[in-house]
Amino acid sequence: MSDSEDCLFCSIIKGEIPSTTVYEDESTYAFEDIHPKAKVHVLVVPKRHYASVDELASEDPAELAHIVGVAQGIAKERYNGAYRLVFNTGLDAGQTVFHVHAHVLTGEVLDE
Ligand code: 5GP
Ligand code: ZN
User: Fold this and answer.
1) How many domains does the chain have?
2) Residue 88 maps to a domain
3) Is-contact 43 17, C-beta < 8 A?
4) Which residues belong to the active site?
5) Domain CATH for 64
6) CA distances (Å), 29 to each of 32, 52, 71, 107, in order?
7) Residue 77 domain-assigned?
8) Ligand 1 close to Cβ of residue 97 (< 6 A)
9) Ligand 1 within 6 A of CB of 35
10) Residues 63, 28: contact at Cβ < 8 Å?
11) Interface TM-score (ipTM) > 0.95
12) Cα(96) to centroid of ligand 1, in Å?
């Protein structure tokens, strides 16, 4: 799956909706979450559209590993290397945007 017309994050990746860029390369985009739940709350997404981390893991596991590396880099740059990585998967788990995204939470001591 490449990109999806009615997808908020595809629109953000294309620059049709503004976002604050944290990191970008050929395959991956990272931007500030609009409603941060930690001092640093960054979303890391593949530029290609996959609905969920399950889909990404089966269709492009190298990109999933790359996303983890990008998260690690953000945590090293913005904090001391500690970070929480969250993939909400499915409606019942709180997924609201169906373009896979890693929530990278860091920048402070996090609540359990
Ligand atoms: P989910 O609930 O799907 O795991 O996470 C979606 C995330 O996207 C939420 O944390 C929400 O704050 C963030 N979000 C929703 N709309 C926008 C937007 O237009 N711009 C940015 N930067 N983040 C958004
Ligand atoms: Zn998308």
Assistant:
1) 1
2) yes
3) no
4) 101
5) 3.30.428.10
6) 10, 16, 11, 19
7) yes
8) yes
9) yes
10) yes
11) yes
12) 8
Report yes or no on 3 lying in a domain: no
Residue 1 lies in a domain: no
pLDDT at residue 92 in the model: 98
CA of 95 to the centre of ligand 2 (A): 13
- The protein residue whose alpha carbon is closest to atom 21 in ligand 1 is 34
Among the bound ligands, name the one nearest to the CA of residue 36.
1
Tokens read off for 44: 């890391």
Name residues whose C-beta falls within 8 Å of residue 12's C-beta, 6 or more positions apart in sequence: 18, 19, 29, 31
Residue from 31, 96, 104, 105 to probe ligand 1 pocket by mutation (most atoms less than 8 Å from CB): 96
Question: In terms of pTM, does the model score above 0.95?
Answer: yes
Can you give the residue range of the structural domain that contains 61? 8-106
pLDDT in tens, the chain (112 residues): 445 779 999 999 999 999 999 999 999 999 999 999 999 999 999 999 999 999 999 999 999 999 999 999 999 999 999 999 999 999 999 999 999 999 999 999 999 8
Q: How high is the pLDDT of residue 3?
A: 59
